[in-house]
Amino acid sequence: MPQYSVGNRSILRFVLAALVLLAWGCGEAEKKPQASSRKLARIVQAERATTPPPSAQPSDIPPNAEPERDTHQGPHDAQRTFAGLADAAGAQEFEANTTILPDSAPPLPVIDTERVAANGIREIAGERLTLYTDLRSAPAVDELPQVFASAIPQWNQYFGIDVSHTADWRMVGYLMKDQERFNNAGLLPPDLPRFLHGFQRGSELWLYEQPSDYYRRHLLLHEGVHGFMKQFLGGTGPPWYMEGMAELLATHQWTNNELSIRWFPHDKEAVAYWGRIKAVQDEYRAGRGRSLEEILRYDAQAHLAVEPYAWSWAAAAFFDSHPRYRDKFRQFQQFAPDTTLTFSQRFYDSMKAEWPQISREWHVFVANIDYGFDIAREAIDAKPATEIPADGATVTISADRGWQSSGYLVETGATYRLEASGRYQVANDPKPWWCEPNGVTIRYHNKLPLGMLLGAIVDEEAAAGEMTSLVTPDAIGMGGEAPVEQGGTLFLRINDSPAELADNSGMLELRITKVQ
Ligand SMILES: [Zn+2]
């Protein structure tokens, strides 16, 4: 039986800390473990810096301690705190938005079809979208109005809006390769603000041509969500919610003329040039991991850069897929008319009691995000923890879930005997792979055997924003003697990709006995 000694433990901790960040290198040069450790440390610092003083403004999202990095932002904005902005937004009340305004649809633009045609722009007519483009006819372009029409019933369903209210809703879109043609055709109003990829206003949306069929469709749906929310929810909420929802409801699969929105992409080829997962990975590795509080504070200028789209999507996908937070998150659509940070403050306040736990789960999510990340199965299973009885305790861990609390506290300076047992399935392709707590050594995840039992000691009393040991777990395997450097609640899981828990099954048991 391998000894679970201090020496091994610290080596494993070191290796894992590095691997958590290296595993998704995408062919990049390997980075030094020291650099990875520093990145983790920097995240902690950044998040700690946002932790409020215990007595000050207890109900506010912690103000940002350091100036915003966004160069689009003026010095005045950089010094504003969340609390200040929330105050400035006033005590305006935004009650549940139940009013649908079918008669107030913005007018459709009047198009000079001859002038448009003279500039080499053609019209693709659809039931819910008329699209003007200078792109040549191709299936992936000509089907865009059909894609748009397919999304509307799914947006209806997501927001709980009766089909009858949206039956007459339609938009006009401009998909531009050569912007000059659209200028000459009078389709680009001079007062249109500058935008990155797409823009929506009233019944119109503008898109620049994109390098992939996926991202062109995505952008159309993204701008469509903005139009839909403004029309049927009365607004879009603050920047993180506006862009997070648009990203959430635009990320899709389109196969055999069937659209499926609100998809967490399983592979990068299916969402070419979308890049949100890679952006979060890159940002995290570069020490720019964002806390939820920072995302909730995005201002109107933040989305002139591309990364905030990735963070806003990640936050929306996290809350919308999480079994414990989903319902509350979805209730906030009723406050969509509130585009101020009061919305964010209200959202934060509604979950304040759970925020330390949310913050830990967010850190685990961001540190391990990958295509197919299974947010529901990775939801951390916490429960009240108690002392280990004198004659020891046995805990049961599911192979098909992420981190699970053992329900037991381990003490600083004490040593425990850990004995794992069980046989469970860690994959099912092409046939069930059986595994014991040491894992299977013909397949690895994060350079440890797939299926190996992992442990982490968590300080559940830590404030939101503290670094969690769940992102740097220790290998337990079959067990051994484990001295505890820093006490807390023992959490357990098996080593597997967060995208591949669904094909696991079975349980393992861990016997824990205090030896000294
Ligand atoms: Zn947008």
Description:
It is a single chain. This protein is α+β, with helices and mostly antiparallel strands. The chain has helices spanning 6-22, 33-49, 75-79, 82-88, 113-118, 139-142, 144-159, 163-166, 179-184, 213-232, 239-248, 276-285, 292-296, 307-321, 326-331, 341-350, 355-368, 375-378, and strands at 122-124, 129-133, 171-176, 198-201, 204-208, 252-255, 258-261, 386-387, 393-398, 404-410, 415-421, 424-427, 433-435, 440-445, 448-450, 453-458, 474-475, 479-483, 488-494, 507-514. It is elongated, with a radius of gyration of 25 Å. The strands form six sheets. Strands 1-2-3-5-4 form a five-stranded mixed beta sheet. Strands 8-10-19-16-17 form a five-stranded mixed beta sheet. The longest helix has 20 residues, at 213-232. Among the domains are: 6-24 and 377-514, Galactose-binding lectin (Jelly Rolls); 102-231, Glutaredoxin (3-Layer(aba) Sandwich), CATH 3.40.30. The relative contact order is 0.12. The protein has 18 helices and 20 strands. The two termini are 19 Å apart. The model is unreliable at 1-60 and 62-94 (pLDDT under 50). Helix content is 34%, strand content 19%. Bound molecules: zinc ion.
Short structural description:
The protein is α+β, with helices and mostly antiparallel strands.
Distance between the termini: 19 Å
SS-based structural class? alpha+beta
Morphology: elongated
Q: Kindly estimate the percentage of residues that lie in beta strands according to DSSP.
A: 15-25%
Largest sheet, in brief, is: 5 strands, mixed
Mean pLDDT: 83
Molecules bound to protein: zinc ion
CATH architecture of the domain at 6-24 and 377-514: Sandwich
- Strand runs, count: 20
CATH superfamily of the domain at 6-24 and 377-514, by name, is Galactose-binding lectin
- CATH topology of the domain at 6-24 and 377-514: the name is Jelly Rolls
**Number of helical stretches of at least 4 residues:** 18
Q: Residue ranges: pLDDT <50 for 5 or more in a row?
A: 1-60, 62-94
Helix content: 25-40%
Which radius of gyration do the C-alpha atoms yield? Answer: 25 Å
Instruction: Using the coordinates above, name the CATH class of the domain at 6-24 and 377-514.
Output: Mainly Beta
Arrangement of strands in the largest sheet: 1-2-3-5-4
